Amino acid sequence: MTTTDATQTTGHSPEAITDEVRARYAEAALSVLGRGEGRADASAGCCSPSVMTDPSDPAWGQLLYDETDRAALPDAAVLASLGCGNPTAVAELRPGEVVLDLGSGGGIDVLLSASRVGPTGFAYGLDMTDEMLELARSNATEAGATNVEFRKGRIESIPLGDASVDVVISNCVVNLSTDKAAVLGEVARVLKPGGRVGISDVVADDSLSPADRAERGSFVGCIAGALSFAEYRAGLEAVGLGEISVTPTHSVGGGLHGAIVKATKPAAWTMADIHPVDLPKPSNAGLPVLAEGGGCCGDGCGCS
Ligand SMILES: C[S@@+](CC[C@H](N)C(=O)[O-])C[C@H]1O[C@@H](n2cnc3c(N)ncnc32)[C@H](O)[C@@H]1O
Questions:
Q1: pTM to 2 decimals?
Q2: What number does the ligand 1 atom closest to the CA of 132 have?
Q3: Higher pLDDT residue, 300 or 98?
Q4: Architecture, CATH, for domain 10-294
Q5: Pocket of ligand 1, candidates 24, 154, 169, 176: which has the most ligand atoms within 8 Å of its Cβ, to mutate?
Q6: 3-class DSSP state of 258
């Protein structure tokens, strides 16, 4: 994998970019918790509560879920929905399965997964932002969910054992990682043999260079960090996953799409099946970390 010093092109190290992401989503969580500082308009990120003033606005992450799912969840979990798809709907979860949601935010997909896998199954949420974890745990308590756990950590270094989950889901988060090759390697590691991936994400047309993507939106707003279709496929192939599909579901403008990413882990997989892959990093994209106006959910937003 090629690594370029982020400071050469952006003035931000990968860690500084991650800190911006964390700050943006901490503010979004605090808004829903009623402890926001009124900076949401300027600083909240993808599908932020700051733009959720019109329930008919299709940019609402919550409108990606059907009425029955929404009705069964605490209001705060629905309000905090910042995704760009509905991964639980495509993952075909079954009773008794163990599910992991990467970048679980306010917990909407973990709670939906928990109800789909039932009392014999389990749903983990993983997030790096304390405020989001607080919100998710509060939502789980309100929902009375007992088969869930929200862990603090980075999706580039998942705090779960090898071959420990049946399904990895994620909703509009992989694009926010500064090391997507590491994320995909971790996904392959934690899946059980035969386990599967069902990710919703923003994906770019193959014709768009990283610089083109950066022109269309910010990193924290889920646009500049989007992989292309070919890059997503190459990343999944490089970590030894099979039955790969990256399917656009809706255009978000400018050659960017909401997409469903699926893959499975072969039964005979070993760690030796993880190979280096050169995926764009913010370091070599020359991108704006923060866009004027707070990034996502404006033109070219990946959330509708
Ligand atoms: C766009 S929100 C999506 C939240 C949730 N999946 C949903 O659909 O509402 C992104 C979430 O991912 C978390 N996140 C972003 N990058 C992360 C990383 N590298 N490791 C762990 N969590 C991350 C943020 O803290 C935030 O809660």
A1: 0.89
A2: 27
A3: 98
A4: 3-Layer(aba) Sandwich (3.40)
A5: 176
A6: strand
